[in-house]
Amino acid sequence: MNHTTAQHQIQRLSDALHQVIVGQHEVLHQVVTAVIADGHVLLEGAPGLAKTTLVRSLAQLLSLSFGRVQCTPDLMPSDVVGTMMLFDDQPGRYQLRFAPGPIFASLILVDEINRTTPRTQSALLEAMQEHTVTVAGTTHPLPDPFMVLATQNPIEMEGTYPLPEAQRDRFLYHIIVPFPNVDDLMEIARREATAFHTVLQACFTADTLAQVRQIAQQILVAEHILAYASMLVLATHPNDSRAPAMVRDGVRYGASPRAVQSLIRTAQVEALRAGRLQVDVVDIQRVALPVLRHRLVLRREAFLANASADSIVALVLAAVPIP
Question: Is residue 61's pLDDT more than 70?
Answer without folding.
Answer: yes
